[in-house]
Amino acid sequence: MNSVITTFEVSYEYEDERLDKFLAAVFPDRSRTYFSKLIRDGNVTMSGKALKANYRLRAEDLITVELPPAERLTIEAENIPLDILYEDDDLLVVNKPKGMVVHPSAGHYSGTLVNAVMYHCGNSLSGIGGVVRPGIVHRIDRDTTGSLIVCKTDQAHTNIAAQLKNHSCNRRYRGIVIGNLREDEGVIDAPIGRDPSNRKKMAVNKKNGKEAVTHYRVLERFGNYTYAEFKLETGRTHQIRVHMASIGHPLLGDEVYGGRKANGRWKLEGQTLHAMNLGFIHPTTGEFLEICAQLPKYFEKLLADLR
């Protein structure tokens, strides 16, 4: 696999931004540390001249990034059934089931979505995601269900990542929260970062958090529970879960942010949250696609019980 060379024109919103921070924003699936090393290795240039990580960008700068080929993958392909909502030569959209981890990590080297798509796609996956995340341009939590894009080409990966970064993707979730939401709709605008008292959790963190905006709209009320739709402007880790818990309405089943009583009278496995609608501009055709993942059976049964 060859290196991927991409050139970006810096827009005015990134005027005076550090180079490494800018690249981490353009490629949200890669860390700032990764790009610091890439810059040190001379893989980021302007007019053929290598730049430094602390270079301050100017509007209309043309930055060229050479991403080295992904290392040989050691993760095994596994014949795991996939619920494919859409597929073509550039990408596929899958309906991820509850309990499935998106990509391999410590303690989860098999049974992941990556293992499944490797079997389904063979060698047709974007290498930008690296060794353990081929094709993965965004993710949803293990116990969240619903639609997720997997990219087959590096060009598609770069394009979709940019759409996620500039918030042009239409991402709508369905969830059941504990309590009766006071307003029929609202916006939660609160930065999210690591919880200072528990590094395994996220929290509203005004000092060190990143911008996070969630819109919510009530669909049905059930007294002690509310069925709602959530629209993301940003895509922070655990964003909906953290935001709803921060206003006193954690997601049903979410013991991490709602405590032991979050399951109510049901025996649930994690938060009741579903990535239902995913809208984006196709990276090759320019057509706007809107993919819908139907609610899983457990979710439908919960709604029936509540009604």
Question: Could you explain how this protein is built, in words?
Answer:
By secondary structure, the chain is α+β, with helices and mostly antiparallel strands. It has 3 domains: 4-67, RNA-binding S4 domain (Structural Genomics Hypothetical 15.5 Kd Protein In mrcA-pckA Intergenic Region, Chain A); 84-166, Pseudouridine synthase; 171-274, Pseudouridine synthase. Helix content is 20%, strand content 29%. The protein has helices spanning 19-26, 32-40, 113-121, 154-165, 239-246, 255-258, 297-306; strands at residues 4-9, 44-46, 49-50, 62-67, 84-87, 91-96, 145-151, 170-178, 185-189, 192-195, 198-204, 213-221, 225-232, 273-281, 288-292. The strands form 3 sheets. Strands 5, 6, 7, 8, 9, 12, 13, 14 and 15 form a 9-stranded mixed sheet that branches. A 4-stranded antiparallel sheet has the order 1-4-2-3. Strand 2 and strand 3 (49-50) form a beta hairpin. It starts with a strand and ends with a helix. The mean pLDDT is 89.
What's this model, at a glance?
The protein has 307 residues and is α+β, with helices and mostly antiparallel strands. It has helices at residues 19-26, 32-40, 113-121, 154-165, 239-246, 255-258, 297-306; strands at residues 4-9, 44-46, 49-50, 62-67, 84-87, 91-96, 145-151, 170-178, 185-189, 192-195, 198-204, 213-221, 225-232, 273-281, 288-292.
